[in-house]
Amino acid sequence: MDRMKRIPISEQEPKVRASNFEEVCLGYTPEEAMAEASRCLNCKKPMCVTECPVTIGIPEFIQHVKNGEFEAAAKTIAKSSALPAVCGRVCPQEVQCEGKCILGIKGEAVAIGKLERFVADWSRENNIDLSEVAPSKGVKVAVIGSGPAGLTCAGDLAKMGYNVTIFEALHEPGGVLVYGIPEFRLPKDTVVKHEVENVKKLGVNIETNVIVGRTVTIDQLFEEEGFEAVFIGSGAGLPNFMGIPGENANGVFSANEFLTRNNLMKAFKEGYSTPIRLGEKVAVVGGGNVAMDAARTALRLGSESHIVYRRSEAELPARLEEVHHAKEEGVIFDTLTNPIEILQDERGWVNGMKCIKMQLGEPDASGRRKPVEIPGSEFIMDVDTVIMSLGTSPNPLIASTTKGLEVNKRRCIIAEEDTGLTSRENVYAGGDAVTGAATVILAMGAGKKAAKAIDEFLSDRYHC
Amino acid sequence: MYKILGKRLLANNIYLMDIEAPRVARSCEPGQFVILKMDEKGERIPLTICDYDKEKGSVTIVFQTLGESTKEMARYEEGQYFADFVGPLGRPSEMVHEDIEELKNKKIMFIAGGVGTAPVYPQVKWLHERGIKADVIVGSKSKELLILEEEMKSVAGNVYVATDDGSYGFKGLVTDLLRDLVENQGKHYDLVVAIGPMIMMKFVTILTKELGINTVVSLNPIMVDGTGMCGACRVTVGGEVKFACVDGPEFDGHLVNFDEAMRRQTMYKSQEGRKILKKEEGDTHHHGGCGCGGDK
């Protein structure tokens, strides 16, 4: 075996998977996982751990995998993370744990994400109980939002013995894990539901269909319902639009709407009532992971699918793995292209998109080269559906209904970096609600820090 | 799970249901709405709040059976449960935040079209409880489709009824009746609140613009989540894009782009129609094999 090379992992064939919603990556077998784990050098000062936002004991769990002690591996991970089956699948490991792996200097980094995923899947399939909880402290904490930040914060607090209730606005817990990331990257019924169940097993109560700011306010949670601290993990779910002419034509969607219909409401499945409507040629405007998810979903629904991005391929913000997968499946990339108007027929339906060619100019303040229009290069793209995937911002509902909760000019809640404490006493926040749209694992890291800070605060107050 | 405490047929195809939802009932204010999902496979359906009882913890909804989902909903009986019921959604009506003494000096006319009578009721009732008598025009296709007339009379000042076919009350459209009241009967109004089909609200705003009366409308675009995360319900108001579920549903009627809003409402129309056909007549219409061009 060549220590510098990864054990390959099996995937569905691109042609086959482009027409189904089954998971693309099939995961390691136990033998493959043990072989991959044996590549780990078990470093004395493991850099991989320092790059993990929730500081999983990576070499420790990998040594367990190497020895075939999968249950012990699962318990090691459970000390730091409540959502390993999710993170093993959707974290950008190449810029986190795997990015600092020593083997990556001369060869390929250890496949930490794939190993984490293997351990989580194995422990699910073998019904391993990971719910170790401290005795109840009898103190109530409310968590707003059941996405990665909220689930992590709630799970950690429950382990410490707090009575935690999560309030979720949608009918299903999971946040972006259920409405945003598609089945073919993150299976809902098996993986997501199970990880949410694990958090419930810790004693966390999840109340769905509660919109904080409308159904109940934060002040009511304190004054009428007896909560002693609140964590806001409400995410950044408000879609941005371009503001170009024709954007309200029939057949223009936000990526959030398109993905919510498909993932949460299961519009692609027979027997579900929510409709989804796509034309023959779909343009997804944007270059992030959400754009890749939307383009690959459109492809699976039977459309010709284009990514339209104003910079060049090198600047695509999406993970490389997702870009590769999208290309293999047949998504067409139209880079250095920017829409300037959406054209519509006499009945108001999209029948084309006027674009302009771009070139890269000087690097801007952030170091990225700025896209500049090439005069006179306008052309019409023949598409009949447009999906806008231009990023999202935090929903202002909670901030606007909570007195004394400060937000910055991007409508993000202002919170201390180390603790998540906001401008309101007893109110903490973390994840996309604070940072704007970022990653699952950063949200989890923020949830973790806030749980620790909430515990310190409440322990002081109640001497518990 | 949310229990159906009561069910009543108000008119042909129009149902009223009391739903047990204490959290929603406690926070309800006039002008807001809810979203209901019947079961695991159901879609999220935005619905009008017709009434609420904070002590009983119940919310009254009224719906008309139009598509597949509302027809299915009508088959639920008292004692059964809906899977999801979320709200109250949207902003409360502007009047909730206004000074009561100032409101008392205003002459307010509500114009309700068809099933839009239901969301008008809690607003008129809210005013009534504060000693303010608002007038109401209820428009209906015919006498048989008229709903909540007695309930409305018990909380409103004058209640005027207009039917398209003249089978009851004034014969003609709500706009004809409003014009008659203002121009021939010497009535004066400071504010009109119109709730009903988009086309009715559009023509009311055209008339009130001419008559110089401020007008509020409650928009009912397609919605998915109802919490501001998708933009399916976006409408153009005064040249700006607004999300009806969080910025509305009530807007200044004179600023709304109704033609765009009506066009967007039809986005799933043929899909909706095909589903009903499929259910009622079997698998006869898919793939556009009949040459009708499918859903294009």
Automatic annotation (TrEMBL), chain A:
Positions of the FAD/NAD(P)-binding domain: 140-447
Gene Ontology molecular functions: iron-sulfur cluster binding; oxidoreductase activity
Domain of life, source organism: Bacteria
Domain Dihydroprymidine dehydrogenase: 17-127
A Pfam family that the UniProt record links to this protein: Fer4_20
InterPro entries on file: DPD_II, FAD/NAD-bd_sf, FAD/NAD-binding_dom, Helical_ferredxn, SudA-like
NCBIfam families linked: gltA
Protein name (record): Glutamate synthase (NADPH/NADH) small chain
Originating organism: Clostridium amylolyticum
From TrEMBL, chain B:
CDD domains xref list: DHOD_e_trans_like1 (cd06219)
PROSITE patterns for the chain: FAD_FR
Record-given protein name: Ferredoxin--NADP+ reductase
Cofactor(s) listed: FAD; [2Fe-2S] cluster
Cofactor detail note: Binds 1 FAD per subunit.
Residues binding FAD, per UniProt: V62, F63, Q64
Region named Disordered: 276-296
Composition-biased stretches (Basic and acidic residues): 276-286
InterPro entries per the UniProt record, alphabetical: Cyt_c3_hydrogenase_gsu (IPR012165), Dihydroorotate_DH_Fe-S-bd (IPR019480), FAD-bd_FR_type (IPR017927), FNR_nucleotide-bd (IPR039261), OxRdtase_FAD/NAD-bd (IPR001433), PyrK_electron_transfer (IPR050353), Riboflavin_synthase-like_b-brl (IPR017938)
Sequence ranges assigned to domain FAD-binding FR-type in this UniProt record: 1-95
Listed GO biological process terms: pyrimidine nucleotide biosynthetic process
Binding-site list for [2Fe-2S] cluster: C230, C233, C245
Taxonomic classification: Bacteria, Bacillati, Bacillota, Clostridia, Eubacteriales
Organism superkingdom: Bacteria
Endpoints of the signal sequence: none
Keyword annotations: 2Fe-2S, FAD, Flavoprotein, Iron, Iron-sulfur, Metal-binding
Organism: Clostridium amylolyticum
Gene3D superfamilies: Nucleotide-binding domain of ferredoxin-NADP reductase (FNR) module, Translation factors
Keyword Iron: yes
